[in-house]
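Researcher: Last one for today. Full complex below.
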Amino acid sequence: MTKEKAVRLLDAATGRKPCDLVIRNTKIVNVYTQEIQQGDLFIDNGLVVGIGGGRKAEKEFDAHGAYLVPGFIDGHCHIESSHLTPTAFSDLVVPYGTTSVIADPHEICNVCGNAAMEYMLKSGRNATLSIFYMYPSCVPATPFEHAGCILDAKEIEKFIGDDSVLGLGEMMNYPGVVNADSMVMDKLETAYKRKKNIDGHAPGVTASDLDGYIGVGISTDHECADADELRERTRRGMYVMLRQGTACKNVLDLVKGVDDGNYKRVLFCTDDRQPETIVKHGHLNHGVNLAIGAGLDPVRAITMASLNAAECYGLADRGAIAPGKRADFFLTGGLTHIKAEKVFIGGRLVAEGGNILSPSVPVAAEGVEGRMCVKDFSKERLKLRLKSDHVRIIDIIPGQVVTKAGEAHVKRDAEGAWVHDKDQDILKLAVVERHNGLGNVAVALIRGYGMEHGAVATSIAHDSHNIIVIGDNDDDMAAAVENLIGLGGGITMVMDGKVLDNHRLEVAGLMTGDGAMEVCRTLERMHETAYEKLKVSNNVDPFMTLCFMALPVIPEYKLTDIGLFDVTKFDFVDINLD
Amino acid sequence: MTKEKAVRLLDAATGRKPCDLVIRNTKIVNVYTQEIQQGDLFIDNGLVVGIGGGRKAEKEFDAHGAYLVPGFIDGHCHIESSHLTPTAFSDLVVPYGTTSVIADPHEICNVCGNAAMEYMLKSGRNATLSIFYMYPSCVPATPFEHAGCILDAKEIEKFIGDDSVLGLGEMMNYPGVVNADSMVMDKLETAYKRKKNIDGHAPGVTASDLDGYIGVGISTDHECADADELRERTRRGMYVMLRQGTACKNVLDLVKGVDDGNYKRVLFCTDDRQPETIVKHGHLNHGVNLAIGAGLDPVRAITMASLNAAECYGLADRGAIAPGKRADFFLTGGLTHIKAEKVFIGGRLVAEGGNILSPSVPVAAEGVEGRMCVKDFSKERLKLRLKSDHVRIIDIIPGQVVTKAGEAHVKRDAEGAWVHDKDQDILKLAVVERHNGLGNVAVALIRGYGMEHGAVATSIAHDSHNIIVIGDNDDDMAAAVENLIGLGGGITMVMDGKVLDNHRLEVAGLMTGDGAMEVCRTLERMHETAYEKLKVSNNVDPFMTLCFMALPVIPEYKLTDIGLFDVTKFDFVDINLD
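Model: Here's the assembly. Have a good evening.
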């Protein structure tokens, strides 16, 4: 609030001046009292003024008895997972009733560091959606890979004071917290000093460790797996998020644990949600509707998706339809299945019938373009010489990002180098460092992808986002890498030296300013090509699976730009078994 | 939280080092989930570590199955009403389970301005109790009287950034807010700029005015009178306080409006609670027990008295018994009637069986001593010359601070000056400016006090706290004023030139460093004298009634140092009717 705004609000509230807008004949969901209030809602200068009161308004809008619901607040998301820049993301999700998000730009910051923070903040300011950020706490995710930068406490300091930065992002390094690792504690301290939030990420953390993790001020968890974990966390005062992402879907498991006593500590989030999932199922509303379908009271579900998130993150200006709050809300015909028919942000109608009315103006991708700084790469770097035919191998588990530590006997050429065996579903996987021209190329073998011939390469490779490429032959793999470098990042498919299709992600190799519809069309077409031409296994997502094969915090075997990594042992292993 | 504390907490939580203390065999009230958890609570370095977990502790304490309740937080109080300095107040209220208070030092700031803020903050830091302050928003309360100072936005700026100052105190000037008075808006702005709270005071404010009042960020109200007003406020997101003071008692009326939907927006407060009331009925626990007695679920009542208050004021470090929170709690044998048997603050046993274990160390009353700067006062100044015998008169309504605008025909001497008529219960009332030596003395007449002979004077006279004196003759009145000046403030009674008794309030004429028991003994003795020797009417409190006769915001007639004031007309009136 400012003095100027306050004076104007008082003039509007008391009827000294007419309000900008009245929404007549509506049923307002009151998240403070869990009631439905019928009436006319007056709005002025982007803020809610009040209900009724015999005021006048410049503009009238008839809701024809529809419900008015506070705009949804996504408690935790990675915008990068949508493949869209913040402004394009905004245009995609606002029509579903999401009016604010708390985003952790962990992916782009792994690539571009604080230049990424600058860009995300700038782009966020241009978005219709209110975008708040949590500064990524774990860049790089591990010391066993090369990201674009190292974001230590000193780097965090530069941004954590920003008004749009609500605190420190998900503290994935929970062993580091529990063991009071000094570098981790330095990062926490940056938040302590400014009384900012710290987000958690605590899969399976329990009992005494959980006491410590929460005790040091980590106040949310979106990695909660079941009702018992939810109860264990809310009892300790932690906010638990019901997550409905593309790969991780916890709403139906977790909602079983929500009750009269603890619901004020529960909110919703999307975490990682692919553009196709959003276009098909919606955004935060998807999780909310699933919870309502499972028996959660709709007004309670709405409260969790709005007020609770606002309270969790100290956003005093939103989260409810009440005097002085931002006029962020949407109309829905019913509450048993919430569908944002008309979305208002700051009192302005911004989306209708699922469409944004005027797209956000993109900002220049300064400091985050391309970022394909690859050195000393050539086809020869992909050659995999083996000591024997008995090797360690990454075994894909269909539909999961977890892999199995496998073994295999493979085919070799005269020089002892691996060659593709048509009778085995084993392919070559390589990670090519792309951030600082270190010249690192690591090669391993992977089973279960199904591809018969060709190569797929992408610059989305959690969390360091080096280039990851899979293929049956070095020529196509090298061509895919070279093509991807030329594109400035994205996803590409090559067969017999020919590029089959591209998805260009010109912003840090992770995001595009193209609209969601175009992205979805491209991805749909590319999926078809991957399955039909490359013959990728039908129970594997050709791109998402690939994206997670370089993530050395998810068991068991993963490949970083340094080499084959055994997550269970938390160390590198030799590919050769004999 | 700090890095150092966090590391120590992690060592304690994980069992790497033993905890300071364990409270065994207790039933912990969980205000996050509304459950009771049985177990052993571990505490280290003043913070809660967790329940159970097989940890070790240096000290053991057996609760023998008693309930462990989070320390109560008084949402709004004026410490001055206890007649005690903050350290003495702390010693009095902590044994009742109050571990934090949000205090508005409105009274002492009316006398000493920012010197009072300095003193209160300093004294608060020495107290066992956690004392937070709201900077008084309305000093002076009106322009129709002379307080010790004028605290405008510029003065507020000097303190509102302080960590112990949570925001702006009760905005009593609600017409000023609703009318967007520029000086008032400047004051609100000081809080906006630092995202601090603003407390309300909105008796009878409703509908559109209430929208405006809340819309500009005023987030609490402790003047709510009934369940309907409570609902009207909570619906708008305002926090409503269930107040149980000495004169104003709203708990039983308001608790009727508390329900499943709105209880998270309700807390408890004491506002103005006299020392005798505290000694007789307790502190915040009194209101909580009344609410439980009226049917409120005990765990919910406890949640309102702890977590809700902490959330309302953004006190993230307290309000619940959970990892990382301050170890502020107390043991009670039962929950149907809560009685703090042992009180812990910062993990230290500080009170037992209703007694503080080690008193807080008082601080020197620098800049707030005495403050009896009276100029040109003499008996002659009390003479009341009237144009006729027909006059305006203040009519006391027994048991209320509201008065009636009365008329009377009175007795005059040869010079036309008022003289006491034994057949009429009419006395002389005078207000003597005491802050800046302005030399103001205003005189009026008052009916219903009952006193037959003598004078009572006090330096507690809301809100400006000039000297107020009542009597049947100028000699005793003048002697009482002179004696009070000599005392440095307090309450005094004089008859036939002789001082009958004194209650010395050496700090700003409002508070004493003496213990509560001594204050209560003095006040009890003085009440007896007032009723038995001075013959004050039994249905009037001789001192409290007098204290409110100079408060020009409570209808109908009041007397300030400038003259007789008609609150309904909001202007001065002539005492003469003919």
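Chain B has a mean pLDDT of 97. Chain B has 15 helices and 28 strands.
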